[in-house]
Amino acid sequence: MKPIRVTIHMVSSLDGMIAKPDNSVAWFETQSHFEGGADIATLMQSMKEVDCYVMGANTYEHAAELSAAYGWPYGDTPTYVTTHRRHPPFRPNIRYHSGDLHQLLQTLEQSGFRNVWVVGGPTLVCDFLRLGLADEIRMPVIPILLGQGIPFFQPGGIEQKLRLKDVKGFRNGLVELHYGIEKGRDT
């Protein structure tokens, strides 16, 4: 059986922010144009290969709020929310987890999931990296400098060596950086 692969995936500004200080993300809709880039549909195609999403409670609440205007970006794919709070039912494919992240991954693997994407937020990303549970990072970068906001990575994280796997430019100016995470090495 193929082992589970955990990918960290969040959209970022060039200066590493995932949202403005007020949590707004309208800047995701870039007006940039890069003639030599790929169609954004190729980026969306990689999301079709995701078996399961994992997100923190704040990301979940924000995505649920934005879904009124933009739709639920994760479709019917099973989504696990790490939380200690009670949340009202939103979609039938959403599950809640309040335990250890190792335990969560064991549950996901036993359920047959192989391609798991952690889609936010920064605290959860930091936990996955600190515990050595992530295999790769896919970071779509939007051509904008926000100057301030909510950072992709929390300050005080661990040093982590990465290996560049791919870089893709898209017609809308977005660039996706794809890194493998080096495991078992001293940093």
Written overview of the protein:
By secondary structure, the chain is α/β, with parallel strands linked by helices. It has a domain at 5-20 and 48-85 and 113-159: Dihydrofolate Reductase, subunit A (3-Layer(aba) Sandwich). The protein is built from four helices and eleven strands, in the order βββαβαββαβαββββ. The chain has helices at residues 41-47, 57-70, 101-110, 122-130; strands at residues 5-9, 12-13, 17-19, 52-56, 79-82, 94-97, 115-118, 136-142, 150-151, 162-169, 175-181. The strands form two sheets. Strands 1, 2, 4, 5, 6, 7, 8, 10 and 11 form a nine-stranded mixed beta sheet that branches. A hairpin with a 5-residue loop joins strand 10 and strand 11 (175-181). The chain is globular, with a radius of gyration of 16 Å. It starts with a strand and ends in a 6-residue tail after the last strand. The model has no long low-confidence stretch (mean pLDDT 91).
Unreliable runs? none
At the fourth level of CATH, the homologous superfamily of one domain is Dihydrofolate Reductase, subunit A
Number of strands: 11
DSSP strand content: 25-35%
Rounded to the nearest angstrom, the distance between the terminal CA atoms is 31 Å
